[in-house]
């Protein structure tokens, strides 16, 4: 699955592994100074792009999961949280071989649809 995501867009893979870059701004109004999260109306194009990359990465992961795995990760706010949750379950060995197979089959479906939609008329 990692190769599939890297082939789609390597930035997606970076978001999954490192987590998204949250839009922040430098402030001096707090007693310590530092960085605070930006309000949505202050986002610039780069901030929106980073948020969109996280949403795309989450979408790719969700498309590859069956309903059991989806229920485990739907409340995650970042693609990194989703990825960590799925890989943790697999490493713990709590996944049955049929569930691992279903994730593989789901990924094949995503690849097939990606190829189908990327073809130009």
From TrEMBL:
A Pfam family assignment: Retrotran_gag_2
Protein name as catalogued: UBN2 domain-containing protein
Organism this protein belongs to: Cephalotus follicularis (Albany pitcher plant)
Organism classification: Eukaryota, Viridiplantae, Streptophyta, Embryophyta, Tracheophyta
């Amino acid at each position: 699955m990692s190769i599939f995501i890297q082939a789609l867009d390597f930035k997606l893979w970076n978001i999954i592994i490192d987590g998204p870059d949250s839009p922040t701004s430098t402030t001096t109004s707090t007693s310590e100074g530092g960085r605070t999260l930006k309000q949505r109306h202050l986002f610039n194009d780069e901030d929106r792009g980073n948020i969109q990359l996280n949403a795309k990465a989450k979408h790719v992961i969700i498309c590859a999961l069956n309903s059991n795995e989806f229920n485990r990760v739907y409340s995650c706010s970042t693609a990194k949280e989703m990825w960590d949750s799925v890989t943790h379950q697999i490493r713990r060995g709590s996944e049955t071989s049929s569930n691992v197979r279903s994730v593989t089959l789901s990924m094949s479906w995503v690849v097939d649809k990606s190829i189908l939609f990327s073809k130009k008329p």
